[in-house]
Amino acid sequence: MHHPESQLSVTLDMVLSHYRQTHPRVCYMQVGAFDGVSGDPIYPLIEKHALTGFLIEPQPDAFERLKANYARFGHSFVFVNAAVAAHDGCVPIYVVKREADGPDWLHQIASFEKSIVMKHAAEVPGLETMIQVENVRSVTFETLFKELDIDRIDFLQVDAEGYDAEILRLYDIRSRKPAIVRFEHKHLRSREHEQALRELIDCGYKVATCGGDTLAYHERC
User: Fold this and answer.
1) Would you tell me which of 37, 111, 190, 194 could form a disulfide with 161, CB atoms 3.0–4.6 Å apart?
2) H helices of 52-104, where?
3) For 128-148, how does the pLDDT look when each residue is reduced to its tens digit (9 = 90+)?
4) Strand-pair partners of 206
């Protein structure tokens, strides 16, 4: 008999604890870091697991808060004010105007697609009038790895409001092989999510889904 309440759920904390048994130094890359705190799955685990990392956020206001929120950690982190894309240059993103009022998460829903932002219209009356287009710097993973002299990433975290599957594709999981991959899938089409899962599984990862996020782990990486 199936009892959902008795099923084990794998958490990021558990996976990091297991990985650190053989890899005590863990470096992560976070695509879509926002302010580094609001609804962030990594922030509560930084000191526990002695994490270091590269945090990427395209929205200027959120980026400044991100740096301020992480100031207490010293020089363990590198911050990049840009959007990851297929080319270096500039890209338009849909953001909520900084003066707009609404739920705490309102300014976290910036996306390359207006339709993704508008998914929240039922919860935010007048949302369409709050949206504006901003042009932000775009950068490829190849440029990031070269400019920041990155040798290895143990953990890739992605929260890109509907662009997550494309970010995984651009990262090239098969060649860069981060041991841990975590991404938001709730805005992905079923086909996109299934394709991302298939690619991870084909690369030897074990995967688990929890709510709107997917966690993948390859302990031999």
Assistant:
1) 111
2) 60-69
3) 888 889 999 999 999 999 999
4) 217
Joined together, the tokens standing for residue 50 give 């002695």
DSSP 8-state class, residue 163: -
Query: And the tokens for 38?
Result: 């609001």
> Going by C-beta distance under 8 Å and a sequence separation of 6 or more, which residues neighbour residue 181?
155, 156, 158, 168, 173, 200, 205, 214, 215, 216, 217
Residue type, 212: G
Q: List, in order of start, the domains of the chain with CATH numbers.
A: 4-217 (3.40.50.150)
Residue 30 DSSP one-character state: E
Virtual torsion, Cα 155, 156, 159, 162, nearest 10 deg: -140
**pTM score:** 0.90
Alpha carbon of 15 to those of 92, 153, 164, 213: distances in Å? Answer: 35, 15, 21, 15
* Location of structure tokens 């962030």: 40
Instruction: Report CA 185 to chain centroid distance, whole Å.
Output: 10
